[in-house]
Specification:
single chain; ATP hydrolysis activity; ATPase-coupled transmembrane transporter activity; ABC transporter-like protein; 6 helices; 5% strand; 4 strands; mainly alpha; two-stranded antiparallel sheet; ABC_transporter-like_ATP-bd
């Protein structure tokens, strides 16, 4: 894979298999190709040679929307949106509360979601409601700044589990 025709390839001779229902984490040092591999899987950049197969299907034969709707990527520093935990996990309201709670339990964030409300300074109207709420109504500030990076990653993991995509 190369970013432009006149540049050297950034990924060479990569081959790996992932079994059915396996989850994969891609780790490595800076510049090792983690992002490039992700871009290739999502077809943000097409391979200069070779092919990528998922379930025996060459991904170059799959429509982009169909391909990308089946893959979940949990970035190192995920973004969350202003609103509730429920809105962040299920922005299109496609799932029942029970399904959302199942994903929360699978992601082990029940304590985070059920943590008692924290009052905000009434003079600070920049961060949503004055009370965070609990459960599915727990408030998420812009970018998820009221959560640690690790907590935002877990919320993103729960979103991926809820959507039943391949992560």
């Amino acid at each position: 894979m190369r970013y432009r025709e006149n540049l050297d390839t950034v990924l060479n001779s990569i081959s790996f298999s992932v079994g059915c229902n396996e989850k994969v984490g891609i780790v490595g040092r800076t510049g090792a190709g983690k992002s490039s591999l992700t871009y290739a899987l999502l077809r943000l950049i097409e391979p200069a040679g070779g092919s990528i197969f998922i379930d025996g299907v060459d991904i170059s034969t799959i429509g982009l929307q169909d391909l990308r709707s089946k893959i979940s990527i949990i970035p190192q520093d995920p973004a969350l949106f202003v609103g509730t935990i429920r809105e962040n996990l299920d922005p299109l309201s496609e799932f029942t509360d029970d399904e959302v709670w199942t994903a929360i339990r699978k992601g082990h964030i029940e304590d985070l979601v059920d943590r008692p409300a924290q009052a905000h300074d009434v003079n600070d109207d920049s961060s949503g409601p004055w009370v965070e709420g609990t459960g599915l109504d727990k408030w998420v500030e812009d970018g998820g700044k009221n959560f640690s990076v690790g907590q935002r990653q877990l919320v993103s993991l729960c979103r991926a589990l809820l959507w039943k995509r391949r992560s």
